[in-house]
Structures are given as C-alpha cells and as structure tokens.
Design brief:
alpha+beta; 14-stranded antiparallel beta sheet; 6 helices; globular
C-alpha cells in the first residue's frame, strides 16, 4: 500500500518537474505570438475550404445551365469533341416562316492543346515568395523552420480566380454556298464573396462571307438555389460587314425544372453605336428546352415579344422552334 502511494506521489510531483526541466524555456510573448499565428492559420484554412466548396457549387451550377442550354461556353468547357446539328424555324409577326440548318463543331486535340496552351495566372497575397523547391525535392529542417508563415490578404478572401482559358476552333455554317468560320476565345472566371460569378469573355471570329468580328461578353451570375440561377448579361458585338457595334443588356433567370427540362426568362435591351449610342429594341422572351430522346436530341421553344424603334415601339410577336442533335461528348 505504501509502495503504491509513493509511486503515485512520484508521478504527480516529480514527473512535471522533470518535464519542465527538459522543455526549453520560452518567453510568454513568444508563446502568444505562436498561438496567434496558429489561430490565424487555422482560421484561414477553414475559410479557404468553405470558400472553395461554395465556389465549386457556383461554378457547377452555371456550367450545368450553360451546357444544358447548348451555349458556346458549354461546348468550350467540354472535355472532348462535340458536334451540334440544328434545325431552326422562326416565325415573326407579318412575315413568313424562316427555316435554317446550322452546324456547330468543336474539335478537341489534347496533344496539340498541350503544345499551344496559353494560360495566365496571378499570385495572390503579399509577402515573401513561396519556397522554390520542386515537389519531389527534399527540404532540410532548417529551411522549414525559417520559412515565414504567409498571412492572408484581403483579396485572397474575397476573390477566387481561375486561369485564363484560351481556345481556337473552326466550324461550318450550312448553306449555299457553305460558310466556314474560325473563332478564338479568351475567358476567365472570377468568384466574388462566395456568391457572385463573373465571366469576362473576348472572342474574335472570321466568316468567309461576313469577314471579321469581335464579341465581348461580361456575364454576372448569382445562384439563388440549386434550381435557379440569376444572370445579368452584357455583350457588345462588332462585325466587319456592318462596321458598327451592337450591344445587349439585361437580366435572365434560369430555372431547372428537372434533369431533362429547363426554362429561361429574359428581358433584354438592344442598342447600337453609330454616331452615338442609343437603344433600338426591347425584347422579352421565355425559353423552354427539353431533352426529348435519349441524351442527345433536344427540343427548344421560344415565344417572344419585341418593341423595336423601327416599328415606333409597337409590339411585334415572334416564335422560335429548334430541334438539336448532339454527337460526340455529351
């Protein structure tokens, strides 16, 4: 019994003293500074992880919407080659039905893309540069101890940017005669405050018949919930054929009804720049799109109402029907 009490007393009194002697002495201010750096590092890590999850959700929703509606962004983000075949039929008040067939083809050549890849990146934050050691190169303990902890910069917490996306593709607009074209596209995605996605995009196009053209779009996306996406669309387009700039501005609301059906509500103001800038048309439309067969045949219906300046701002009704077949990467 006495032996047990003695051992217990030794462990309670003597062991802490030995641990204190073996532990190097540190100044109280140094302990506070280390604890503060660790707290900042942990808080930054938690914030960045949450930011990444929310940002990924935003990008996933906008990419899914654009891909379902067959936008050019959806084609450009695809991992493989894709061919879209369109049959369009348009009715406009006091005019005849207009039928047309179009083809959009996106070709992916992975090895060539690796050789011609163009990307720009920006290092966020201020402070000492990160270590230049290669991933497989061993680091000595001294360099790890001397490496300072980089504290977060405000821009890192409010803004997430992906690298610039650059691609070049060609296509053929079916007609008599056929109208081949080429297009170069530069885009970047930025996420502000974990809720807003900004997509500045610049395009340069060339058509055999129309000549050169430039298109600038700056869309701002806000996901309301997993089935609704709100977008403020802004674009400006110039062609060598008309030698004038046309613009489109206005809000859009995308609603995913199910996996195979979706709606897009749109109110747009169209303008033109000649001697000065002015609005020449207002358009309100509802776009309905549905997957009608397997995973490659789509039906699209778009009733719309316009108020063009050329018609003294009187309403003009129109209806658009599209059958679209997708081949390749879906």
């Amino acid at each position: 019994m006495r032996l047990c009490l003695t051992l217990t007393l030794f462990s309670c009194l003597i062991m802490p003293l030995m641990a204190q002697e073996l532990t190097p002495a540190t100044h109280p201010s140094e302990d506070k500074e280390v604890a503060s750096d660790l707290a900042i590092q942990r808080a930054t890590e938690v914030m960045n992880n949450a930011h990444q999850r929310v940002s990924s959700t935003i990008l996933l929703l906008s990419n899914r919407i654009d891909s379902f509606f067959g936008s050019r962004r959806g084609d450009d983000e695809a991992n493989g080659s894709r061919l879209r075949l369109f049959y369009d039929s348009t009715f406009r008040q006091n005019q005849r039905w207009d039928d047309r067939i179009d083809v959009r083809f996106s070709l992916r050549l992975p090895q060539l893309q690796k050789l011609m890849r163009i990307s720009f990146s920006k290092e966020g934050g201020k402070g000492p540069p990160p270590p230049t050691n290669e991933p497989n190169e061993p680091k000595d303990e001294a360099s790890q101890k001397e490496a300072p902890t980089m504290k977060p910069n405000l821009s890192d917490l409010l803004l997430t940017t992906n690298k610039w996306n650059f691609n070049v593709n060609t296509g053929l607009r079916v007609g008599i005669p056929p109208n081949p074209f080429a297009r170069a596209r530069l885009r970047r995605t930025m996420v502000f405050f974990n809720t807003l996605e900004f997509n500045p995009t610049q395009e340069a196009t060339w058509f055999l018949e129309q000549g050169f053209g430039l298109n600038f779009t700056h869309d701002l996306d806000y996901p309301i919930n997993p089935t609704f996406l709100f977008r403020v669309a802004n674009s400006a387009f110039w062609t060598d054929e008309t030698d004038q700039v046309t613009t489109t501005h206005g809000p859009q609301l995308f609603q995913q009804l199910s996996q195979n059906r979706a709606l897009a509500y749109s109110i747009q103001a169209q303008g033109v720049v000649e001697n000065s800038y002015y609005i020449n048309n207002y358009i309100g439309s509802i776009q309905y799109r549905q997957l009608i067969h397997s995973n490659w045949l789509f039906l699209e219906l778009v009733p719309a109402i316009e108020f063009p300046k050329a018609e003294s701002w009187n309403e003009v009704y129109s209806f658009f029907l599209r059958l679209e077949a997708v081949f390749g990467t879906i």
